[in-house]
Design a protein that fits this description.
The chain is of the alpha+beta class. It has a single domain, classed as mRNA Triphosphatase Cet1, Chain A (Alpha-Beta Barrel). It is 23% helix and 33% strand. It has eight helices and eleven strands. It has an eight-stranded antiparallel barrel, surrounded by five helices. A hairpin with a 4-residue loop joins β8 (172-186) and β9. α1 packs across α8 (263-275). It is globular and about 50 Å long. The two termini are 28 Å apart.
């Protein structure tokens, strides 16, 4: 099933959602633009690893994001691993049989959790990760290195007992995702900006791809200082949104869950797919 068909089904949108990629082909690619950034290495990131952080997310057309990055100065470096600046990620999420973790997000509950195994393919590592968002809107991430991506998490029973409120035998594999990530690291502050493209979502036998869409996420230590990326994005009329790959995928693909809270995301991404060459997203 195409992204167009799923978004129309979930949002009720009647308009056709044409591909924007062909209309933006004259613009520089994201890869071309980040090739001009100075590199940084994984062992140089230090405080910018930010396992405790506040986050701000935006959804934009990929090629328009590349155009915007051309205006950036020398305030960021790009993470480079073995000569690569775009890195492959795969993620297997876990939830209860009645999607309790999804429902926490849908209902706006705090604290709330995500449980996943994420494979950092180009780094050759995988981690079982638990993310918790607190009442103060701070995200805490704890993780345990595991052999690789898998559909069971028995190996992490003791780790999960100390980090997640649900017993390991309640959790089952749900959404699987794949994407490419480019990471910018601030040279002045403990800040990272991740740029995710080529997003694919799969639940059971249903799979959708979202070509041409970029999810940008600014990760910083606190709200106390201004991010250059956010300042420049706002100047271009790019506004933050609440976005979770897991919740977005489940709300689109799971047949018996309430998607109401995420329908604005469905409509917004539909607009981006339809108006990508004319739209710096308004929210």
């Amino acid at each position: 099933m195409t992204a167009e068909e799923v978004l129309k089904r979930r949002s009720g949108a009647r308009q056709r959602l044409p591909s924007m990629t062909c209309r933006l082909s004259a613009l520089p690619s994201l890869g071309d633009v980040v090739a001009e950034f100075a590199p940084t290495q994984l062992d140089e990131i230090g405080d910018a690893a930010l396992l405790q952080r506040v986050t701000t997310k935006m959804a934009v057309p990929e090629l328009l994001l590349a155009q915007a990055l051309q205006t950036f100065g020398r305030g960021y470096r790009v993470l480079e691993i073995d000569g690569r600046r775009s890195h492959r990620y795969q993620t297997q999420y876990f939830d209860t049989s009645d999607y309790a973790l999804y429902r926490q997000h849908h209902n706006g509950q705090r604290p709330r959790y995500k449980v996943r195994i994420r494979a950092y393919q180009d780094a050759g590592m995988a981690f079982l990760e638990v993310k918790r968002k607190s009442n103060q809107d701070v995200t805490f991430k704890e993780r345990l290195q595991v052999p690789g991506i898998a559909t069971d998490i028995d190996v992490g029973g003791e780790f999960l007992a100390s980090t997640c409120p649900y017993p390991v035998d309640w959790l089952r594999p749900t959404l699987w995702t794949q994407f490419q990530r480019t990471t910018l690291v601030s040279m002045q502050r403990a800040e990272r900006v991740t740029l995710d493209t080529g997003l694919i979502l799969r639940l059971g036998q249903e799979e959708i791809a979202l070509p041409g869409l970029a999810i940008a996420e600014v990760k910083r230590s606190d709200h106390a200082w201004r991010s250059e990326f956010l300042v420049r994005s706002r100047a271009l009329n790019v506004r933050p949104i609440s976005f979770s790959k897991y919740c977005f995928g489940i709300s689109l693909l799971a047949p018996r869950v309430k998607p109401n809270r995420f329908k604005p995301q469905h409509l917004l991404l539909g607009r981006i797919l339809q108006e990508g060459d004319r739209l710096w997203m308004s929210h």
